[in-house]
Amino acid sequence: MKDQFTLDRNSKYEQKLEQLFKVAFILSVLGVLLSVVDYGFDQGRLLQYSINLFYFFVIGVGIFSTAVRYFALKRKPPAKVFVFDVLSIGVSILVIGYHIVLQYSSKSGYFLSSDLMINLALF
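Below the sequence we write its predicted structure tokens.
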């Protein structure tokens, strides 16, 4: 008996979905590991910029794969998972938006544009 997140491996479409979910998971794990290393060492400006771009990429892939899960799978996750997913996507978008907008408009140190909030959005 299949659970609600199991895909039919015979379909090429569903094989692509399974690959997307695996890539999103691997990128998320790499992002979390990188955030631990990022806190432990000082980086140069270019390296820190590259790390931040990777964080944004990981968060973007996470948002995309979460949305695909709801639109592409026949069986939907339970309602409590949906609520958590909506909240996490909302926080991720809010943090990215504030980081991009406020970082370039002011350096006064807004809470949502801090590196701590970017790393929390990764988790």
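DSSP finds four helices and no strands in the chain.
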